[in-house]
Amino acid sequence: METATLPGKRSSPMKGRIMADNNVVTKIQSRLSDPTALGVFGLAMVTMVASSAKLGWTSGEGYIIPWAIMLGAIAQIWASTADFKNNNYFGAIVLGSYGLFWLAVAISWMIKLGWFGMAGADIKQMGFGFLGYFIFSLFITVAAFHVSKVFAAILVLIDVLLLSLTLATLGLATNIFAPLAGWSELLISLLSFYACGGIFLNNFFGRTVVPMGKPFTFIKKG
Predict the structure, then answer these.
(1) Rounded to whole angstroms, how far apart are CA atoms 105 and 32?
(2) Residue 133: in which H helix or E strand, if any?
(3) Are 96 and 130 in contact (CB under 8 A)?
(4) Domain range annotation of the chain
(5) Burial letters for 145-164: b for 16+ Cβ neighbours within 10 Å, e otherwise?
(6) CA 60, CA 114: separation in Å to the nearest integer?
(7) What does the alpha-carbon distance between residue 48 and residue 67 come to, in Å, rounded to a whole number?
(8) ∠ CA(135), CA(195), CA(81), 5° rounding?
(9) What is the DSSP string of 83-122?
(10) What SS3 class is residue 141?
């Protein structure tokens, strides 16, 4: 650092050092633990419960709503917030977007059950919501292939689920796409449990205990 001197006076090295020290900025960053396992656990739980209704093993949406809000929405949104702080771009966007999805679905179920006293709701509007998420998920799927094979498989199944929900909700070949939505959602749950366990154990032991599959690298990162 250069210091200004008056004519006829010498600059003091010590003074220059003190001035430099006074301009030092200390940056303290608080880093949270990896929250991905919690977010994926939320996805696993809510898809497990929701798939039971789609496959006809249970009936109605009333008891799915708490799981959709607490596990599908809150757990994933909180994990997304923590991932933003950890600068985990993939986890932050994916968990946050799907957490909001489950919150919207839970509120839609509440409307359907008449909790808000609303009447005349058009169920096909949910179909267009599913369509929007399907389009968005296609982009997420490309990135998921560069994370791990397990996450790639989960995202492909999510694409199948969202497309099936779109077509079934819009009344197109419901007898085909409604069961397909149920089975794809159940597979999402089972793979998500595997991913959750893998992330948790691998982070806990600091090494690969549960293999997640090496990512594909068909697109180079900048």
Answers:
(1) 29
(2) helix 124-144
(3) no
(4) 36-115+128-205
(5) bbbbebbbbbbbbbbbbbbb
(6) 13
(7) 10
(8) 65
(9) HHHTT-HHHHHHHHHHHHHHHHHHHHHHHHTTTT------
(10) helix
Report pLDDT digits (tens) over 154-171: 999 999 999 999 999 999
For the domain covering 36-115+128-205, report its CATH number. Answer: 1.25.40
pTM of the model: 0.84
Are 176 and 185 in contact by the 8 Å Cβ rule? The answer is no
Pull the structure tokens for residue 69: 């809000």
Structure tokens, 94: 């994916």
pLDDT in tens, 180-198: 999 999 999 999 999 999 9
Please work out, in degrees rounded to the nearest 5, the angle formed at the alpha carbon of residue 175 by the alpha carbons of 50 and 132.
Answer: 60
Report the residue count for the chain: 222
